[in-house]
């Protein structure tokens, strides 16, 4: 890592407002470590939905100091529209190029996307360790899985939409998988948590494309839920952070983001939370060839274009709903 430049000092009891689409308990150790290192800064953390974070970002009267979200396209769009300040000092300057864009927005986590299932309710020989295996399982066990598979709703979830676009970019056979998900009347859900709760209650036996950090934390206290990182490729999501260009407290904001990106902040992230770090020398596990981080590039900007999004969602709906009639007609039979 390059040598860091000193940041200007801030006044005592300087407030710092963070608008975040990241559950506070998930990042609490990092916030606590930052507050211990910088007692002069009073952190106000708003735990919001991705859509609420977007609204706060665009609120000219009351902008936050720092913006955090897992909705990668909207974070890129906000930066492209001029809402993000450039950071070229401290840890931001040394941050890996593949996890930042124009020195304005930074991917600070490394979160593999996983598949989750109930091992106690599925055949022990059901292979789910690749996208091809998942496709074959959906076809072979349609009656068993009918109505009991959960997926993100790309129309309601910015994260779900970004993952769907990333999947489509990695394999031409993705649309076959979408049709197979439709054929089992997969239930479209707004969040990873709703999918995990459905697995725990027994409503679902299988869930696709969950945020791995949340899923691992949940599975730790729900041992009947098993997680899979698919062998052919595993998407990797990055939470993205930026300092708002109109931050009321820009020095405190820069200090926080630089701490978040520093080796010290990333060590807390990797060792005291369910999140992980893009820095391989800090992470306990090395990069695997199957890991496919979602790139911070112009492709994410295209996803923020409303006309493109509508075309994508229309294609999703066409492939997804075309195959579910047989499954729905058999829903009167109880699942075995």
Describe this entry's structure for a reader.
With 336 residues, the protein is an alpha/beta fold. 42% of the residues lie in helices and 18% in strands. The protein has 15 helices and 13 strands. Strands 6, 7, 8, 9, 10, 11 and 13 form a seven-stranded mixed beta sheet that branches. Strands 2-1-3-12-5-4 form a six-stranded mixed beta sheet, with helices on both faces. Helix 1 links the parallel strand 1 and strand 2. It is globular and about 65 Å long.
The dominant shape is globular
- Main β sheet profile: 7 strands, mixed
Number of strands: 13
Oligomer: single chain
Contiguous uncertain segments of 5+ residues: 1-5, 332-336
Strand content: 15-25%
The end-to-end span amounts to 55 Å
Task: Write the element-wise H/E pattern from the N-terminal end onward.
Answer: EHEHEHHEEEHHEHHEHEHEEEHHEHHH
Rg, Cα atoms, Å: 21 Å
Number of helices: 15
Summary tags:
alpha/beta, six-stranded mixed sheet, seven-stranded mixed sheet, 336 residues, disordered N terminus
Q: In short, what is this structure?
A:
The chain has helices at 24-37, 50-57, 72-80, 90-94, 131-140, 142-145, 158-170, 174-183, 192-201, 212-219, 250-261, 263-272, 298-303, 306-321, 325-329; strands at residues 14-20, 41-47, 66-69, 100-101, 105-107, 111-118, 149-152, 187-189, 206-211, 225-228, 234-237, 240-243, 291-293.
């Amino acid at each position: 890592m390059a040598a860091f430049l000193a940041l200007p000092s801030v006044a005592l009891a300087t407030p710092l407002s963070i608008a975040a689409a990241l559950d506070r308990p998930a990042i609490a150790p990092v916030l606590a470590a930052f507050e211990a290192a910088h007692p002069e800064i009073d952190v106000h953390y708003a735990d919001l939905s991705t859509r609420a974070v977007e609204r706060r970002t665009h609120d000219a009267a009351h902008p936050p100091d720092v913006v955090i979200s897992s909705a990668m396209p909207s974070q890129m769009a906000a930066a492209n529209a001029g809402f993000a300040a450039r950071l070229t000092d401290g840890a931001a300057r040394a941050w890996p190029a593949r996890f930042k864009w124009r020195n304005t927005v930074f991917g600070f986590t490394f979160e593999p996307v996983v598949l989750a299932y109930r091992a106690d309710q599925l055949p022990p020989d059901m292979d789910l360790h690749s996208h091809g295996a998942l496709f074959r399982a959906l076809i072979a066990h349609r009656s068993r899985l009918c109505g009991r598979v959960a997926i993100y709703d790309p129309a309601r979830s910015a994260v779900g939409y970004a993952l769907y676009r990333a999947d489509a970019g990695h394999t031409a056979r993705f649309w076959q998988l979408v049709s197979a998900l439709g054929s089992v009347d997969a239930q479209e859900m707004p969040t990873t948590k709703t999918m995990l709760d459905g697995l725990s209650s027994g409503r679902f036996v299988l869930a696709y494309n969950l945020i791995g950090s949340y899923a691992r934390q949940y599975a730790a206290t729900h041992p009947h839920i098993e997680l899979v990182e698919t062998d052919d490729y595993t998407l990797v999501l990055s939470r993205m952070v930026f300092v708002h260009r109109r931050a009321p407290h820009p020095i405190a904001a820069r200090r926080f983001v630089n701490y978040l990106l520093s080796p010290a902040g990333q060590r807390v992230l990797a060792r005291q939370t369910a999140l992980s770090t893009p820095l391989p020398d800090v992470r306990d596990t090395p990069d695997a060839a199957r890991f496919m981080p979602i790139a911070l590039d112009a492709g994410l900007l295209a996803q923020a274009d409303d006309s493109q999004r509508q075309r994508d969602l229309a294609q999703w709906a066409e492939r997804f709903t075309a195959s579910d009639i047989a499954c729905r007609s058999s829903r009167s039979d109880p699942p075995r």
